[in-house]
Amino acid sequence: MGLALDGLSSGLGTTALINSIMQIEAIPQSLLKSKVSGTQSIITALQSLNTKIAGLAGLATAASKPDALTAYTATSSSDTISVVAAKGATAGQLDIVVGKLAQAHTTVSDAVTAWPETTLTITGTDGGAVSIAAASTSIDDIVSAVNAAKAGVSATKVAAGTDVATGETLYRVQFSASETGAAGAFTISDTSVPMTTIKAAQDAEATLWQGTAAEQILTSSTNTFENILSGVSITATAASTNPVSITVARDANAATKVARDLVGSLNEVFALISTKSVVTTSTTNGVTSVNGGVFTGDSSVRSAKGSLLTAASMPVDGFSPSEIGISITKHGVLEFDATVFGAALADDPAKVESMMQQIASRVAGSATQASDKYDGTLTAKITGQESLAKNLNGRIEEWDARLENRRATLTRMYSGMEVRLSALNAQSAYLTSQLASLSTGPSK
Predict the structure, then answer these.
(1) pLDDT digits (tens, 9 = 90+) for 333-360
(2) Domain boundaries, the chain
(3) What is the mean pLDDT of residues 193-214?
(4) Max CA-CA distance within the chain?
(5) Closest C-alpha to 328, from 255, 260, 263, 261
């Protein structure tokens, strides 16, 4: 900024005068800045809406899957058996008796102070033998060698008292199969240390239709039986002689949640649009002004809402969505009646599944059309607004340079005026003094 010469000769506040002029000169730029602010508000609101609709698209796509409503829950009549129903499960009931639990083969050596040999052999049920070679006869080295061999057997050193004759500490080595089941059985050979089997390898056994001509025994290397009922996993924690009833039924709550979540997500979108479309009036100095929200009159937003509302409320194969608890109110929002939905699901599951699949598919299509990151209608709208904001900011920058030059011009002009007035004042003072001297000179 140049040197200020406020009122040096003219008595004017030139800096304030220049600032006032610049305020007027900057009005076009201020209007541009206001427009940028409004555009940015639109962009932010559109991005928020686009994110919500994209989330709706994902939710609706999942709800449109053929198995979206085919969730089942499984229960057991005893706490000794737990049941889990996965996708693919079907309704059914079965009595089961778990006579044996699976267990891992466990062998324990006699108590020794050191292993007599540095080698031993582990042989599995398949006849495969693994030779173990330890670094020394110490119990620790034997244990380490077994564990490093990855023979499907782990070894553990266990204190076993003291040798009465020598006073040395005695140890046993416990050999345990890495996995439960009969296939995990093993033998220890090539050693002079006696071995005792503590637990023999054993499969779990479950009996179906016990005591009837159809009685069937099933085995599992673990305590879990898979797919005795389709998609159902049964895990036993204790053996029993009494039948345990397993029941698999449709999970109405899970199916209801799918429908409720879809309607809820739609209403979140509609609520955001309504909030951003509110028209308000205000009165200042007797003048009433009407102001619309950022979405007021926006055809892209209006089209997206209409498309979603139509997708959710249109009939499906001649049936109204209200028959499964989905209805539209006079305020243009959706309502979900869980009681109606549950009754319809119990009465005709196939019909409800088909209707939900088609409604969700239509909603997913409409939501994707609006929010697709490449060619969605709202995405295109956002891109256009961002381009507009960029263009406006470029014009604002041009005005910055223009106003800076204008201020410099005004500063030079008023500074020059002050200097010129100073010179004229000096000349005037000189002439005045000269005239005064003439009028007071000697008389003739």
Answers:
(1) 899 999 999 999 989 988 999 999 999 9
(2) 32-67+254-379, 72-101+204-250, 106-199
(3) 94
(4) 165
(5) 263
